[in-house]
């Protein structure tokens, strides 16, 4: 009797045999682990299950509460797979953590992120992304800037060169334009005013000049006696350095921006690389966009490695850069 009294108060013990069996059967193991791994468009994210189910009735909430693990798609390593934009998903995950929307300055992917929020059925995030942006500290908005800025740089969206001031300064005649308007409407070639300027256009309306540098690292093996044919290894990655707007104009969808996704169009970057591994393909794209090669440099190192036949081979590793210009 004393034993029965002592076990009656335990959560899973005490009582008769029927009651004990009922409690054991109801304690089922959770369907999903507390830590889940997600593969979103090739990008791997590791987070808690409570994070992905933090918004009721959302797509992720239904996946991880209303479905069985075996019903969800997985990749080759067992991660739950979602065929969506893996780079924008980080902002979705940040929102799910604390239900706050925090985006970097000059974020160019707002409309695409709103589309991702609609797919994941996050109505509050969709509403916040669709709301007008509040002006913050930093450069003035594009509509308040002239066609020509400091040091001759161009903004993302500039006024048309034929833009006229609504009011003229006192003392100026009706037919004489102001000096500022003359500067904004005059092209370097002396021609007529051009259309709206984009980040890849110059003042005369043509494609904007600039430089793009592409580089690659390669290695090859050659015998010590230099008699055997060199064994060249495949180029692992072709890097792209230059202005963001020029790189996107030339390479388009073949440009991988994963290492620097939020770079404004007028900034420079050295972290882009191409989705293909053929130098000739990169040369063709640059040539089609009006670029021509102006410089090339290469550096390399050499090391000896022992092979299976007790001989030593030379392993050369080189990094080569090609500089292209469009005038």
Automatic annotation (TrEMBL):
SMART domains: BTB. One of its GO terms (molecular function) is identical protein binding. GO terms for cellular component: postsynaptic membrane; presynaptic membrane; receptor complex. Residues 1-28, 129-150, 165-204 are annotated as: Disordered. Residues 11-21 have a biased composition (Gly residues). One of its GO terms (biological process) is regulation of G protein-coupled receptor signaling pathway. Its main location: membrane. Keywords: Cell membrane, Cell projection, Membrane, Phosphoprotein, Postsynaptic cell membrane, Synapse. CDD domains: H1_KCTD12. Residues 34-137 form the BTB domain. InterPro entries: BTB/POZ_dom, H1_KCTD12, H1_KCTD8_12_16, SKP1/BTB/POZ_sf, T1-type_BTB. It is found in: Postsynaptic cell membrane; Presynaptic cell membrane. It comes from the Eukaryota. Gene3D superfamilies: Potassium Channel Kv1.1, Chain A. PANTHER family: BTB_POZ DOMAIN-CONTAINING PROTEIN KCTD12 (PTHR14499:SF29), POTASSIUM CHANNEL TETRAMERIZATION DOMAIN-CONTAINING (PTHR14499). Auxiliary subunit of GABA-B receptors that determine the pharmacology and kinetics of the receptor response. Increases agonist potency and markedly alter the G-protein signaling of the receptors by accelerating onset and promoting desensitization. This is Potassium channel tetramerization domain containing 12. It comes from Panthera leo (Lion). The gene is KCTD12.
